[in-house]
C-alpha cells in the first residue's frame, strides 16, 4: 500500500466514523423520543409495549 492509498484509507475511515457517530446520536434521540411518547421518565419503569407494538 502506497502513501496515497494509505491517506485515502484514513480519510475513508474518518468519514465512516463520523457517519457511525451521527447514526448513534440519531438512535439515542429516537429512543428518547419513544420513551417520552410512552410517558416514561427517569423512574426506569418498564415499557408497556415492545418495539414491535406487542404488549409487554
How would you characterize this protein structure?
The protein is rod-shaped. With 56 residues, it is an all-alpha fold. The chain has one helix and no strands. The mean pLDDT is 87.
- The tally of beta strands, per DSSP, is 0
Structural class: mainly alpha
Distance between the termini: 53 Å
User: If helices are DSSP runs of H or I spanning 4 or more residues, what is the number of helices?
Assistant: 1
Order of helices and strands: H
Rg, alpha carbons: 19 Å
The major pleated sheet works out as:
none
What fraction of residues sit in β-strands? under 5%
Mean pLDDT value? 87
Shape call = rod-shaped
Portion in helices: 55-70%
Which consecutive residue ranges, at least 5 long each, have pLDDT under 50?
none
Quickly list its features:
56 residues, mainly alpha
Short note summarizing the structure:
The chain is an all-alpha fold. The chain is built from one helix and no strands.
Layout of SSEs?
Elements: H1 3-37
Amino acid at each position: 500500500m502506497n502513501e496515497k492509498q494509505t491517506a485515502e484509507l484514513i480519510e475513508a475511515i474518518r468519514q465512516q466514523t463520523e457517519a457511525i457517530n451521527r447514526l448513534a446520536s440519531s438512535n439515542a434521540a429516537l429512543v428518547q423520543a419513544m420513551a417520552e411518547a410512552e410517558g416514561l421518565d427517569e423512574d426506569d419503569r418498564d415499557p408497556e409495549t415492545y418495539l414491535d407494538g406487542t404488549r409487554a
